[in-house]
Amino acid sequence: MENGSYICAVNSIDMAKATRKKKDPDASAEEKILSAARAVFTRNGYAATTVRDIAAEADLNFSLVNYYFRSKEKLYDLVMKDAIRQLLSGIKDVLNDVHTTPEEKIDLVCVGWIDMLLVHPDLPLFVMNGVANSSNDITKELVENNVFLTSYFVKQLMELHGKGKLKIAPLHLVMNLVSMLTLPFVARHLLLKTGAIDMKIFKAMMEERKTQIPGWIKLMM
């Protein structure tokens, strides 16, 4: 009887643990859903994506996706915020380093950003498409992560421009820098699908741009 009571007690504890586990958020499942959502939103756009599409991409039950995230809107906001942070991660410290010149900052940003985008090549396109569907929360995220225009780098450029030592307006220079870094990744699918280049050539070109872009930007200065 004692052994039987012990086994029943253990089984009850295990069942209770299993019940609690089901109710607790599963980090791996959430990550899987977020990763799938980003892939589907990037591929289909916000309007053409459904929660069922995301569930199918994640190979998870539709109800489970709803359980964790409740709505497509919430999922989209979370994925967009993460994409914005990821796109701008790693360059904030570079841009605000008071010990480096603008030219040195340009060198470091080009290398760091291209390295990051080679790992996450769809980030620029996803963020650009997402801005059109952005909520107030996403707009706030963009403002809070406006690392370029509020940076020490731009302050340096404004000082140089004020002294007549910079040929173009700082905003033009920043726009040119960001465009040169991100637009090849936005156009990547078009280039690949038309057969103009393959992925190996694209990656080689991006490696070349780590040194080419700083050279072009410095000529504008």
Automatic annotation (TrEMBL):
Any Pfam family the entry gives: TetR_N
SUPFAM superfamilies: Homeodomain-like
DNA-binding region: 50-69
Gene Ontology MF terms in the entry: DNA-binding transcription factor activity; transcription cis-regulatory region binding
Domain HTH tetR-type: 27-87
PANTHER family given in the database record: HTH-TYPE TRANSCRIPTIONAL REGULATOR BETI, HTH-TYPE TRANSCRIPTIONAL REGULATOR RUTR
Protein name per UniProt: Transcriptional regulator, TetR family
Native species: Chitinophaga jiangningensis
Phylogenetic placement of the source organism: Bacteria, Pseudomonadati, Bacteroidota, Chitinophagia, Chitinophagales
